[in-house]
Please model this.
Amino acid sequence: MFSLFLLNGLKFNEKYMKYTDLLVGGLCLFCACSSPQKNPIDYVDPFIGTGFHGHTYPGATTPFGAVQLSPDTRRGNWDASSGYHYSDSTILGFSHTHLSGTGCQDLGDVLLRPTTQPVRLEGEGDIFLPAAFSHDSEKATPGYYAVTLAEEQIKVELAASTFAGMHRYTYLNDKDASVIVDLTHILNTDDFIYEAELKQTADNEIVGMRRTRSWVDNQYIYFVLQFSKPIQEWQQLNDKQGVAHFGQEREVLAKVGLSIVSAENARENLLHDMPDFNFEAVCQQAKAAWEKELAIVNVKGGTEAQRTNFYTAWYHSLVVPNRTNDINNDYRRHDSSIAKTPEGKTTYSTFSTWDTFRAWHPLMTLTDTELVNNMIQSLLNMYEVTGELPIWPLSSGETGTMIGYHSASIIADAYMKGIRGYDAEKALEAMVVSSNKNAKGSDFYTKYGFIPSNIKRESVSCLLEYAYDDWTIAQMAKAKNPEFELPKFDKAEKVDRWVNRILLDYYVEHPTQVVGNELYFADAIILDDVQVVTVPSKEKIKNYMQVENPMKKASTESEFQVFKPNFWKKSAAASVQFSQHGISDNWYQGGESTNALLAEMKMTANYDNKQGIQFDNSLEMKLGFITAPSDTVHSYKT
Model:
């Protein structure tokens, strides 16, 4: 309820779509007892979400920035998705790229580890021990993170800009100061490093790169690392690990510029974002960027805890997607070629579309139309290279994770709201093409109108999401051209017929009522108070019963086997019924003989425990439909 109240109390900044500042009575009740409100940034707590399975990180980043500089406390398990988990008490080091809120591990590029302890110079694996820390010494605000490594007495402070990260290490004891640079560090221990380079290029500079296979294959990262003090000794252990020694220096700063294109671009990014080692200036610039973005929404009322929850969630909603084009506008495409982003535009990646098409993307259409246009153009750029709109792109590749083709929904939503700063014709083409290419059962969906659950996992979920995405394509197409006709996206021909099949599959597994010795299942489908289920033609029914239907396997020329639902047993009797406007499937089992009625056709079948239902080839035409009792009919509204 609180979030609804908050959303009715939004005030948008002038850069964005303008809304009137509204107050809901429920919120006003809080005002009398609330303390004076702070600035939005003051409510953000980056530690929220770092425990349990939240998979967020507490480190320094900027809105939609290319750098996420944060501590890594673990790797190799699900709760290492962001590199940090609040339950941990040791830190491995501080790497420059992280995911937020995902269920898979990747990134964790270019790890730095300040130390005062001896470094293990031989063998494989880590050349250092994890550093103990306490949450009491941690501090995190948007764009800034700090912690003290207790045993080694090193205070670590991190700040970030769009393309670079800055570290400030204060060595609090009299031991020699060193910084480890580790390119073997990976958050997913199943990752593979194709190649890596690491070399000293100046008395205070290290340059390197690596190319990996993780959640995304062929992933590039280049970096330029510069220290505020000359390196007294550089120990190159191999092509992935090295140690910079600084003797008795008590404060050492390090700044790291990143690029997924080249080391030259990483250097240019670093020079642009951090021309010197002014740590406070970097913090202030990050803070100003966050204040500007967070102030887009002005919440009135609520308790302190509620405002903290809201603004932290708002903060987390602005850390992804991430910019991929460098300061010179170069970016790496999904085929590894290098392209240019037009001046004044931004290219993004890290789109978890299955997670974000429902709420996050629609929210962005209300708060930042410039961002929406840039995101859609980024999706279309990926389509140009791959021939398909992305599902879950990361960096310069595609993870292929989750289901649906929700880029279509994202584009249609923006178009229908008048956000059209891209080639709409090309967008519609990409949406239609992509709807026929998705690998997770889309071939069955397109050919048969449903996805067999015994052949494809998540068949019902896939089918629902494909049908929805196709509906969004149809809405955009009809908005562009009221005469638009494409049978694949016709409501009666595709979406509603597949809703029938979804419900049929569901009710076979989920009986709703037992009447006598028959199981009845819900039947009527009503959308927006209109009965939309159409009577299938005899030809369609016949086609459904043909051998090539993927739910059946041919045993002889004259007989075939139907997929056996899980609830079938020798003594069971079952009925799956749709109303007179839909498909009527009845299965009655009695002893060794089973009669099956499919819509207008009656078939004789024998039941065998080993082989399931066996239909022969004889058909008895039957007029009329069997309907379920009225008390088993359910209504569905969109």
Remarks:
- The longest helix spans residues 459-480.
- Confidence is low (pLDDT under 50) at residues 1-34, 495-638.
- The first strand starts at residue 60 and ends at 61.
